[in-house]
Amino acid sequence: MNPPVSRAARTSLAFRITALCLVVAGVAVVVAGLVSARLVLTASREVTREALADQADVVAEQLGEVGRPGRLRVAEVLRGQGIAVVLIGPDGGLVGDPQAVRAVRVTGSKSGIAGTRLVEVRPGVALVQGVESGNGPGRRLFRNIAFALGVGLLVAAVAGLLLGKLVARPLRQTAAVARTMSGGRRDLRAPEHGPAEVAEVGGAVNALADALARSEARQREFLLSVSHELRTPLTAVTGFAESLADGVVSGPEVPVVGRTIQQEAHRLDRLVTDLLDLARLGADDFRVDLAPVDLAELVKAAAEVWRTRCAAKGVEFRLELPPHPTVRTTDARRLRQVLDGLLENALRLTPAGRPVVLSLHDVLQVRDGGPGLSEEDYQVAFRKGALHAKYERSRPVGTGVGLALVHGLVTRLGGTIEAGPAPEGGAAFTVRLPDA
User: Fold this and answer.
1) Do residues 171 and 13 touch, judged by C-beta distance below 8 A?
2) Residue 351: how many CB atoms within 10 A of its CB?
3) Is the pLDDT of residue 12 over 70?
4) CB atoms within 10 A of CB 405
Protein backbone atom coordinates (compact mmCIF):
# COMPACT_ATOMS: atom_id res chain seq x y z
CA MET A 1 0.00 0.00 0.00
CA ASN A 2 1.32 3.40 -0.92
CA PRO A 3 1.84 5.81 1.98
CA PRO A 4 -0.69 8.62 2.21
CA VAL A 5 0.32 11.88 0.64
CA SER A 6 0.63 14.67 3.18
CA ARG A 7 -1.45 17.78 2.69
CA ALA A 8 1.68 19.92 2.31
CA ALA A 9 2.91 17.70 -0.56
CA ARG A 10 -0.25 18.18 -2.60
CA THR A 11 -0.31 20.84 -5.28
CA SER A 12 -3.27 23.17 -5.55
CA LEU A 13 -5.79 23.13 -8.39
CA ALA A 14 -4.81 26.69 -9.35
CA PHE A 15 -1.15 25.66 -9.66
CA ARG A 16 -2.06 22.66 -11.81
CA ILE A 17 -4.29 24.71 -14.09
CA THR A 18 -1.55 27.34 -14.44
CA ALA A 19 1.04 24.67 -15.27
CA LEU A 20 -1.33 23.06 -17.77
CA CYS A 21 -1.99 26.40 -19.46
CA LEU A 22 1.76 27.04 -19.68
CA VAL A 23 2.39 23.66 -21.24
CA VAL A 24 -0.48 24.03 -23.72
CA ALA A 25 0.56 27.57 -24.63
CA GLY A 26 4.22 26.59 -24.98
CA VAL A 27 3.41 23.63 -27.23
CA ALA A 28 1.01 25.74 -29.30
CA VAL A 29 3.52 28.56 -29.76
CA VAL A 30 6.37 26.20 -30.62
CA VAL A 31 4.27 24.23 -33.13
CA ALA A 32 2.85 27.41 -34.66
CA GLY A 33 6.34 28.96 -34.77
CA LEU A 34 7.88 25.93 -36.47
CA VAL A 35 5.08 25.74 -39.01
CA SER A 36 5.25 29.50 -39.61
CA ALA A 37 9.05 29.37 -39.95
CA ARG A 38 8.76 26.57 -42.47
CA LEU A 39 6.16 28.46 -44.46
CA VAL A 40 8.06 31.75 -44.28
CA LEU A 41 11.37 30.17 -45.30
CA THR A 42 9.71 28.33 -48.17
CA ALA A 43 8.00 31.50 -49.33
CA SER A 44 11.23 33.46 -48.92
CA ARG A 45 13.11 30.88 -50.98
CA GLU A 46 10.53 31.05 -53.76
CA VAL A 47 10.64 34.86 -53.82
CA THR A 48 14.43 34.84 -53.81
CA ARG A 49 14.49 32.27 -56.60
CA GLU A 50 12.11 34.31 -58.77
CA ALA A 51 14.15 37.47 -58.18
CA LEU A 52 17.39 35.61 -58.98
CA ALA A 53 15.86 34.24 -62.18
CA ASP A 54 14.88 37.72 -63.28
CA GLN A 55 18.40 39.02 -62.54
CA ALA A 56 19.92 36.08 -64.42
CA ASP A 57 17.88 36.97 -67.51
CA VAL A 58 19.03 40.58 -67.33
CA VAL A 59 22.68 39.68 -66.69
CA ALA A 60 22.74 37.21 -69.58
CA GLU A 61 21.58 39.96 -71.95
CA GLN A 62 24.04 42.53 -70.55
CA LEU A 63 27.05 40.23 -70.67
CA GLY A 64 26.46 39.64 -74.36
CA GLU A 65 26.61 43.38 -75.04
CA VAL A 66 29.60 44.49 -72.89
CA GLY A 67 33.22 43.59 -72.92
CA ARG A 68 35.39 42.16 -70.16
CA PRO A 69 35.55 45.42 -68.11
CA GLY A 70 31.73 45.61 -68.19
CA ARG A 71 31.43 42.03 -67.05
CA LEU A 72 33.71 42.71 -64.11
CA ARG A 73 31.60 45.69 -63.06
CA VAL A 74 28.39 43.62 -63.30
CA ALA A 75 29.97 40.87 -61.20
CA GLU A 76 31.12 43.41 -58.64
CA VAL A 77 27.62 44.91 -58.33
CA LEU A 78 26.00 41.49 -57.90
CA ARG A 79 28.61 40.42 -55.36
CA GLY A 80 27.56 43.39 -53.25
CA GLN A 81 24.01 41.95 -53.27
CA GLY A 82 25.26 38.54 -52.10
CA ILE A 83 25.06 37.01 -55.58
CA ALA A 84 28.07 35.22 -57.11
CA VAL A 85 28.60 35.23 -60.92
CA VAL A 86 30.01 32.17 -62.63
CA LEU A 87 30.99 32.56 -66.28
CA ILE A 88 30.44 29.56 -68.52
CA GLY A 89 32.79 29.18 -71.44
CA PRO A 90 31.94 27.72 -74.86
CA ASP A 91 33.67 24.50 -73.82
CA GLY A 92 31.67 24.34 -70.54
CA GLY A 93 34.45 25.68 -68.37
CA LEU A 94 33.40 27.54 -65.23
CA VAL A 95 35.10 30.69 -63.96
CA GLY A 96 34.16 32.42 -60.73
CA ASP A 97 34.04 32.02 -56.95
CA PRO A 98 35.14 28.46 -56.06
CA GLN A 99 32.07 27.81 -53.84
CA ALA A 100 29.75 29.14 -56.51
CA VAL A 101 31.50 26.98 -59.14
CA ARG A 102 30.95 23.89 -56.94
CA ALA A 103 27.25 24.75 -56.59
CA VAL A 104 26.87 24.99 -60.39
CA ARG A 105 28.61 21.65 -60.83
CA VAL A 106 26.29 20.06 -58.24
CA THR A 107 23.24 21.11 -60.26
CA GLY A 108 24.85 19.85 -63.45
CA SER A 109 25.07 23.33 -64.95
CA LYS A 110 21.27 23.61 -64.69
CA SER A 111 19.01 25.84 -62.62
CA GLY A 112 18.25 24.29 -59.24
CA ILE A 113 19.22 24.11 -55.56
CA ALA A 114 22.60 22.99 -54.28
CA GLY A 115 22.30 22.64 -50.53
CA THR A 116 21.63 26.13 -49.23
CA ARG A 117 22.34 27.88 -52.53
CA LEU A 118 20.07 28.77 -55.43
CA VAL A 119 21.53 28.36 -58.90
CA GLU A 120 20.12 30.04 -62.01
CA VAL A 121 21.90 29.09 -65.23
CA ARG A 122 21.65 31.07 -68.47
CA PRO A 123 23.71 30.89 -71.67
CA GLY A 124 27.23 31.92 -70.76
CA VAL A 125 26.54 32.77 -67.12
CA ALA A 126 25.21 31.35 -63.85
CA LEU A 127 24.08 33.25 -60.76
CA VAL A 128 24.45 31.69 -57.30
CA GLN A 129 22.83 33.07 -54.13
CA GLY A 130 22.56 31.63 -50.62
CA VAL A 131 19.00 31.21 -49.34
CA GLU A 132 19.95 31.14 -45.61
CA SER A 133 22.25 33.62 -43.93
CA GLY A 134 23.12 33.60 -40.27
CA ASN A 135 22.76 37.36 -40.14
CA GLY A 136 19.73 37.49 -42.43
CA PRO A 137 15.98 36.98 -42.22
CA GLY A 138 16.31 33.46 -40.74
CA ARG A 139 17.85 34.68 -37.51
CA ARG A 140 15.37 37.52 -37.24
CA LEU A 141 12.54 35.05 -37.81
CA PHE A 142 13.67 32.77 -35.01
CA ARG A 143 14.16 35.74 -32.71
CA ASN A 144 10.56 36.74 -33.40
CA ILE A 145 9.38 33.21 -32.70
CA ALA A 146 11.26 33.16 -29.40
CA PHE A 147 9.72 36.51 -28.46
CA ALA A 148 6.24 35.24 -29.34
CA LEU A 149 6.90 32.14 -27.22
CA GLY A 150 7.84 34.28 -24.23
CA VAL A 151 4.79 36.50 -24.61
CA GLY A 152 2.53 33.46 -25.02
CA LEU A 153 3.91 31.80 -21.90
CA LEU A 154 3.47 34.98 -19.89
CA VAL A 155 -0.13 35.40 -21.04
CA ALA A 156 -0.79 31.70 -20.37
CA ALA A 157 0.65 31.98 -16.85
CA VAL A 158 -1.56 34.97 -16.00
CA ALA A 159 -4.63 33.39 -17.60
CA GLY A 160 -4.00 30.04 -15.89
CA LEU A 161 -3.54 31.68 -12.50
CA LEU A 162 -6.79 33.65 -12.84
CA LEU A 163 -8.66 30.64 -14.19
CA GLY A 164 -7.32 28.39 -11.42
CA LYS A 165 -8.41 30.82 -8.72
CA LEU A 166 -11.80 31.23 -10.38
CA VAL A 167 -12.38 27.48 -10.54
CA ALA A 168 -10.88 26.74 -7.13
CA ARG A 169 -12.85 29.39 -5.22
CA PRO A 170 -16.20 27.49 -5.18
CA LEU A 171 -14.33 24.26 -4.43
CA ARG A 172 -12.62 25.87 -1.44
CA GLN A 173 -15.98 27.20 -0.26
CA THR A 174 -17.50 23.73 -0.66
CA ALA A 175 -14.65 22.19 1.33
CA ALA A 176 -15.16 24.77 4.08
CA VAL A 177 -18.88 23.93 4.21
CA ALA A 178 -18.09 20.19 4.38
CA ARG A 179 -15.63 20.72 7.26
CA THR A 180 -18.23 22.80 9.11
CA MET A 181 -20.83 20.07 8.52
CA SER A 182 -18.49 17.52 10.12
CA GLY A 183 -18.74 19.63 13.27
CA GLY A 184 -22.52 19.16 13.40
CA ARG A 185 -23.92 22.19 11.56
CA ARG A 186 -26.54 21.50 8.91
CA ASP A 187 -27.68 25.03 8.02
CA LEU A 188 -24.82 25.87 5.64
CA ARG A 189 -24.95 25.29 1.89
CA ALA A 190 -22.16 25.05 -0.68
CA PRO A 191 -22.16 27.36 -3.74
CA GLU A 192 -23.61 25.82 -6.88
CA HIS A 193 -22.02 28.05 -9.51
CA GLY A 194 -18.97 27.91 -11.76
CA PRO A 195 -18.23 25.10 -14.24
CA ALA A 196 -20.77 22.29 -14.45
CA GLU A 197 -18.56 19.78 -12.64
CA VAL A 198 -17.79 22.21 -9.79
CA ALA A 199 -21.47 23.11 -9.45
CA GLU A 200 -22.29 19.40 -9.41
CA VAL A 201 -19.92 18.88 -6.46
CA GLY A 202 -21.59 21.73 -4.58
CA GLY A 203 -25.03 20.29 -5.34
CA ALA A 204 -23.94 16.84 -4.11
CA VAL A 205 -22.65 18.32 -0.83
CA ASN A 206 -25.93 20.21 -0.37
CA ALA A 207 -27.93 17.05 -1.08
CA LEU A 208 -25.80 15.23 1.49
CA ALA A 209 -26.47 17.98 4.05
CA ASP A 210 -30.22 17.70 3.43
CA ALA A 211 -30.10 13.92 3.72
CA LEU A 212 -28.12 14.12 6.95
CA ALA A 213 -30.58 16.63 8.39
CA ARG A 214 -33.55 14.39 7.51
CA SER A 215 -31.81 11.29 8.85
CA GLU A 216 -30.88 12.96 12.12
CA ALA A 217 -34.41 14.30 12.50
CA ARG A 218 -35.83 10.78 12.00
CA GLN A 219 -33.31 9.41 14.50
CA ARG A 220 -34.35 11.99 17.08
CA GLU A 221 -38.02 11.20 16.53
CA PHE A 222 -37.30 7.48 16.72
CA LEU A 223 -35.32 7.83 19.93
CA LEU A 224 -38.12 9.90 21.46
CA SER A 225 -40.71 7.28 20.52
CA VAL A 226 -38.50 4.43 21.81
CA SER A 227 -37.88 6.32 25.03
CA HIS A 228 -41.62 6.76 25.46
CA GLU A 229 -42.20 3.09 24.66
CA LEU A 230 -39.61 2.04 27.23
CA ARG A 231 -40.90 4.37 29.91
CA THR A 232 -44.39 2.82 30.00
CA PRO A 233 -43.38 -0.78 30.88
CA LEU A 234 -40.57 0.45 33.13
CA THR A 235 -43.05 2.58 35.09
CA ALA A 236 -45.40 -0.38 35.44
CA VAL A 237 -42.62 -2.77 36.50
CA THR A 238 -41.21 -0.24 38.99
CA GLY A 239 -44.63 0.56 40.48
CA PHE A 240 -45.74 -3.04 40.95
CA ALA A 241 -42.31 -4.05 42.27
CA GLU A 242 -42.46 -1.29 44.86
CA SER A 243 -45.96 -2.43 45.84
CA LEU A 244 -44.67 -5.95 46.39
CA ALA A 245 -41.60 -4.71 48.31
CA ASP A 246 -43.69 -2.45 50.57
CA GLY A 247 -46.27 -5.16 51.27
CA VAL A 248 -49.09 -3.14 49.71
CA VAL A 249 -49.98 -6.12 47.51
CA SER A 250 -50.39 -9.46 49.25
CA GLY A 251 -52.40 -12.61 49.24
CA PRO A 252 -54.36 -13.48 46.09
CA GLU A 253 -53.28 -10.23 44.37
CA VAL A 254 -49.63 -11.31 44.15
CA PRO A 255 -50.04 -13.65 41.11
CA VAL A 256 -51.90 -10.93 39.21
CA VAL A 257 -49.13 -8.42 39.90
CA GLY A 258 -46.52 -11.01 38.96
CA ARG A 259 -48.18 -11.66 35.61
CA THR A 260 -48.34 -7.92 34.91
CA ILE A 261 -44.65 -7.53 35.68
CA GLN A 262 -43.91 -10.51 33.45
CA GLN A 263 -45.89 -9.04 30.54
CA GLU A 264 -44.19 -5.66 30.82
CA ALA A 265 -40.77 -7.30 31.07
CA HIS A 266 -41.61 -9.28 27.93
CA ARG A 267 -42.44 -6.01 26.14
CA LEU A 268 -39.08 -4.58 27.17
CA ASP A 269 -37.24 -7.71 26.04
CA ARG A 270 -39.01 -7.68 22.67
CA LEU A 271 -38.17 -4.01 22.10
CA VAL A 272 -34.50 -4.49 23.00
CA THR A 273 -34.28 -7.60 20.81
CA ASP A 274 -35.80 -5.80 17.82
CA LEU A 275 -33.41 -2.89 18.25
CA LEU A 276 -30.38 -5.20 18.44
CA ASP A 277 -31.49 -7.19 15.38
CA LEU A 278 -32.07 -3.99 13.42
CA ALA A 279 -28.60 -2.74 14.36
CA ARG A 280 -26.99 -6.04 13.34
CA LEU A 281 -28.57 -5.86 9.88
CA GLY A 282 -26.14 -3.11 8.94
CA ALA A 283 -23.09 -5.06 10.12
CA ASP A 284 -20.86 -6.97 7.71
CA ASP A 285 -20.88 -10.05 9.94
CA PHE A 286 -24.68 -10.46 9.88
CA ARG A 287 -25.05 -14.11 9.06
CA VAL A 288 -27.46 -15.50 6.46
CA ASP A 289 -27.40 -19.29 5.87
CA LEU A 290 -28.85 -19.84 2.41
CA ALA A 291 -30.18 -23.31 1.54
CA PRO A 292 -33.08 -24.84 -0.43
CA VAL A 293 -36.23 -24.46 1.69
CA ASP A 294 -39.74 -25.83 1.11
CA LEU A 295 -41.77 -22.74 1.86
CA ALA A 296 -44.98 -24.77 2.26
CA GLU A 297 -43.54 -26.68 5.21
CA LEU A 298 -42.17 -23.48 6.74
CA VAL A 299 -45.55 -21.76 6.44
CA LYS A 300 -47.37 -24.76 7.93
CA ALA A 301 -45.07 -24.71 10.98
CA ALA A 302 -45.71 -20.99 11.50
CA ALA A 303 -49.45 -21.49 11.03
CA GLU A 304 -49.64 -24.00 13.90
CA VAL A 305 -48.33 -21.40 16.34
CA TRP A 306 -50.29 -18.42 15.08
CA ARG A 307 -53.58 -20.29 14.74
CA THR A 308 -53.50 -20.88 18.49
CA ARG A 309 -52.56 -17.27 19.28
CA CYS A 310 -55.32 -15.94 17.03
CA ALA A 311 -57.88 -18.26 18.60
CA ALA A 312 -56.95 -17.00 22.06
CA LYS A 313 -57.83 -13.47 20.95
CA GLY A 314 -60.96 -14.49 19.03
CA VAL A 315 -59.43 -13.72 15.65
CA GLU A 316 -60.12 -15.99 12.68
CA PHE A 317 -56.95 -17.51 11.18
CA ARG A 318 -56.82 -18.64 7.55
CA LEU A 319 -54.06 -20.53 5.76
CA GLU A 320 -53.70 -20.58 1.96
CA LEU A 321 -51.18 -23.07 0.50
CA PRO A 322 -50.38 -24.23 -3.04
CA PRO A 323 -51.03 -27.89 -3.98
CA HIS A 324 -47.34 -28.51 -4.74
CA PRO A 325 -44.05 -27.85 -2.87
CA THR A 326 -42.56 -24.39 -3.31
CA VAL A 327 -38.77 -24.45 -3.00
CA ARG A 328 -36.65 -21.31 -2.63
CA THR A 329 -33.02 -20.75 -1.72
CA THR A 330 -33.25 -18.77 1.50
CA ASP A 331 -32.54 -18.81 5.24
CA ALA A 332 -35.38 -20.67 6.97
CA ARG A 333 -34.69 -19.12 10.39
CA ARG A 334 -34.61 -15.56 9.09
CA LEU A 335 -37.70 -16.09 6.93
CA ARG A 336 -39.58 -17.47 9.94
CA GLN A 337 -38.55 -14.32 11.80
CA VAL A 338 -40.09 -12.27 8.96
CA LEU A 339 -43.36 -14.23 9.13
CA ASP A 340 -43.56 -13.93 12.91
CA GLY A 341 -43.00 -10.18 12.72
CA LEU A 342 -45.72 -9.69 10.09
CA LEU A 343 -48.22 -11.97 11.85
CA GLU A 344 -47.63 -10.31 15.20
CA ASN A 345 -48.27 -6.92 13.62
CA ALA A 346 -51.47 -8.23 11.96
CA LEU A 347 -52.80 -9.89 15.13
CA ARG A 348 -52.20 -6.77 17.21
CA LEU A 349 -54.36 -4.64 14.90
CA THR A 350 -57.11 -7.15 14.03
CA PRO A 351 -60.22 -7.04 16.24
CA ALA A 352 -62.01 -10.18 17.38
CA GLY A 353 -64.11 -11.80 14.69
CA ARG A 354 -61.99 -10.43 11.83
CA PRO A 355 -59.51 -12.58 9.85
CA VAL A 356 -55.73 -12.86 9.68
CA VAL A 357 -54.56 -14.63 6.50
CA LEU A 358 -51.21 -16.33 5.86
CA SER A 359 -50.94 -17.06 2.14
CA LEU A 360 -48.36 -18.79 -0.05
CA HIS A 361 -48.68 -18.98 -3.80
CA ASP A 362 -46.13 -17.30 -6.04
CA VAL A 363 -45.45 -14.94 -3.15
CA LEU A 364 -45.69 -14.94 0.63
CA GLN A 365 -48.44 -12.73 1.95
CA VAL A 366 -49.84 -11.73 5.34
CA ARG A 367 -53.24 -9.99 5.27
CA ASP A 368 -55.48 -8.77 8.06
CA GLY A 369 -58.96 -7.42 8.65
CA GLY A 370 -57.80 -4.53 10.81
CA PRO A 371 -58.24 -0.79 10.25
CA GLY A 372 -55.64 -0.68 7.46
CA LEU A 373 -53.50 2.28 6.44
CA SER A 374 -53.75 5.28 4.18
CA GLU A 375 -51.96 5.41 0.83
CA GLU A 376 -49.32 7.70 2.31
CA ASP A 377 -48.79 5.30 5.23
CA TYR A 378 -48.10 2.40 2.89
CA GLN A 379 -45.22 4.39 1.38
CA VAL A 380 -43.49 4.85 4.76
CA ALA A 381 -44.61 1.64 6.47
CA PHE A 382 -41.08 0.22 6.69
CA ARG A 383 -39.46 3.40 8.01
CA LYS A 384 -38.40 3.16 11.64
CA GLY A 385 -40.98 4.64 13.99
CA ALA A 386 -43.04 6.29 11.22
CA LEU A 387 -46.33 4.49 11.97
CA HIS A 388 -45.58 4.26 15.68
CA ALA A 389 -45.37 8.04 16.03
CA LYS A 390 -48.60 8.55 14.07
CA TYR A 391 -50.82 5.90 15.64
CA GLU A 392 -49.54 5.44 19.20
CA ARG A 393 -52.51 7.42 20.59
CA SER A 394 -55.24 5.91 18.39
CA ARG A 395 -54.55 2.17 18.00
CA PRO A 396 -52.37 -0.62 19.41
CA VAL A 397 -48.75 -0.17 18.36
CA GLY A 398 -45.64 -2.29 18.71
CA THR A 399 -42.04 -1.35 19.27
CA GLY A 400 -41.84 0.95 16.26
CA VAL A 401 -39.05 -1.08 14.64
CA GLY A 402 -40.81 -4.35 13.77
CA LEU A 403 -41.66 -3.54 10.15
CA ALA A 404 -38.26 -1.89 9.62
CA LEU A 405 -36.62 -5.09 10.90
CA VAL A 406 -38.78 -7.20 8.57
CA HIS A 407 -37.82 -5.03 5.60
CA GLY A 408 -34.12 -5.32 6.44
CA LEU A 409 -34.33 -9.11 6.79
CA VAL A 410 -36.14 -9.55 3.46
CA THR A 411 -33.59 -7.31 1.74
CA ARG A 412 -30.72 -9.37 3.20
CA LEU A 413 -32.41 -12.51 1.86
CA GLY A 414 -32.34 -10.97 -1.63
CA GLY A 415 -36.08 -10.39 -1.80
CA THR A 416 -38.50 -7.47 -1.77
CA ILE A 417 -41.46 -6.56 0.42
CA GLU A 418 -44.28 -4.12 -0.20
CA ALA A 419 -47.35 -2.96 1.67
CA GLY A 420 -50.83 -2.28 0.34
CA PRO A 421 -54.55 -2.69 1.04
CA ALA A 422 -55.95 -6.18 1.67
CA PRO A 423 -59.27 -7.62 0.39
CA GLU A 424 -60.14 -8.35 4.01
CA GLY A 425 -60.23 -4.62 4.70
CA GLY A 426 -56.89 -4.17 6.45
CA ALA A 427 -53.30 -4.19 5.25
CA ALA A 428 -51.47 -6.75 3.10
CA PHE A 429 -47.69 -7.31 3.23
CA THR A 430 -46.28 -9.16 0.22
CA VAL A 431 -42.85 -10.82 0.26
CA ARG A 432 -41.17 -11.85 -2.99
CA LEU A 433 -38.14 -14.11 -2.76
CA PRO A 434 -35.66 -14.91 -5.56
CA ASP A 435 -36.23 -18.10 -7.51
CA ALA A 436 -34.47 -21.32 -6.53
Assistant:
1) yes
2) 13
3) no
4) 24
